[in-house]
Design brief:
two-stranded antiparallel ribbon
């Protein structure tokens, strides 16, 4: 059994590297495709805005979105942040690379680009100049692809490093001089979780004979979601990143489950979807489209469940903090009074989110195993 765990952890290391690489490419591609439309809409709305520049009231919606959305720098505290590489490709200008601090938090244009609401916008001027003096070129913006190392991508690289350290240390524990002895330390803490995923999720859902080849994926996806959920519990603290609350990442995770299910599916599974045995043909006209739709709804539900639960928790916690400043603008005393209740509710929600972090990792892994089991189940003969 110990040798089997060692093999599973080593295989998981390889899958983790490929898995994160796919996520990085997909997230940045989605970001690049969204940038053009978001930019055009933001410029159109600029002309209809009537808010005064001197208005210092707290915009709770904007504050919350800034914390849960992706960005091109890693905010630490106040006006201090870690700049990240901005990598832009334009069919006319070619490849452009620079650090995000060159944009001065979106206040400056640099090498022909500015940042508006996290999206790269092409301008006509190539020299460094104040953002409000630059002229936006929407035609060039539409041809610009953003493949930067954003905060979410950097956070995924951090989680990949954490997973490598965890799995590598556990694997070594089974090959060193303590082989055969009782586990201790990190090995002792995580071995029950690995065995739980193997015995109560993989074996129970897929079967004793077929579960082994799915274990590396199930272990990888469980720990990837769990680690990023835990890191995402600090969205208002230095270094917080909302990785699993990004719908593009949730989509990639669900898509990988969908692809593995389809590739692993046997003839009995597809016959059940296309023409369920024993069902009259007139009923199949209604039932078959529903079954086919269900094949695509399963990964969609996986995506929405993970994205909605994680994002909703972050929004609620940040909303409690915003209440302090909203009521504080009405009256300082009222702000201090509300802060007590906001703090208590924040502590409660943080404890609840800690449970959700484990629960969502478990549910996603369990449902993935269930789908694999459904796809590989042999046809029963009565």
């Amino acid at each position: 059994m110990m040798q089997r765990i060692k093999q599973l952890t080593n295989t998981s290391l390889l899958i983790t590297s490929f898995f994160i690489a796919v996520l990085i490419g997909f997230v940045n591609n989605v970001q690049a495709q969204d940038s053009t439309q978001a930019t055009i809409e933001s410029h159109e709305s600029e002309h209809h805005s009537t808010e005064a520049h001197g208005d210092k009231k707290v915009d709770a919606g904007k504050l919350i979105m800034e914390h849960i959305m992706d960005s091109h720098d890693w905010h630490l505290f106040g006006h201090t942040s870690i700049p990240l590489p901005v990598i832009l490709y334009n069919s006319e200008r070619g490849l452009t690379m620079f650090m995000s601090n060159k944009l001065h938090h979106g206040q400056m244009a640099y090498k022909g680009y500015i940042m508006e609401e996290g999206h790269a916008v092409a301008v006509n001027e190539l020299e460094t100049m104040p953002e409000h003096e630059a002229t936006v070129n929407e035609e060039l913006t539409a041809k610009t692809y953003d493949i930067s190392i954003s905060k979410n991508v950097a956070a995924m690289l951090v989680s990949m490093l954490i997973m490598f350290v965890i799995f590598n240390s556990i694997a070594k524990a089974y090959t060193n001089k303590r082989k055969g002895l009782a586990p201790r330390g990190l090995q002792n803490a995580l071995e029950p979780i690995i065995l739980f995923i193997r015995d109560d999720i993989a074996k129970a859902s897929i079967g004793e004979k077929k579960y082994a080849k799915y274990m590396p994926f199930l272990l990888t996806i469980f720990f990837f979601i769990l680690i990023n959920n835990l890191l995402g519990l600090i969205p208002i603290m230095p270094g917080g990143a909302n990785v699993t609350g990004n719908i593009a990442i949730a989509l990639v995770l669900a898509t990988m489950t969908f692809i593995i299910s389809c590739v692993s599916a046997n003839k009995a599974y597809w016959m059940h979807v296309i023409a369920m045995p024993g069902v009259p043909k007139p009923i199949l006209l209604l039932l078959t489209p529903i079954e086919i739709l269900g094949v695509f709804l399963r990964p969609f539900v996986l995506m929405i469940r993970l994205f909605a639960n994680i994002t909703a928790g972050h929004i609620i916690i940040l909303s409690f903090f915003c209440l302090i400043f909203i009521f504080g603008e009405m009256s300082p005393g009222l702000g201090y009074g509300v802060s007590v209740m906001s703090l208590l509710f924040t502590i409660f929600m943080s404890a609840l989110e800690l449970l959700v972090a484990f629960l969502q990792a478990y549910v996603f892994t369990l449902l993935s195993a269930v789908y694999f089991g459904m796809a590989t189940a042999e046809e029963e003969h009565h």
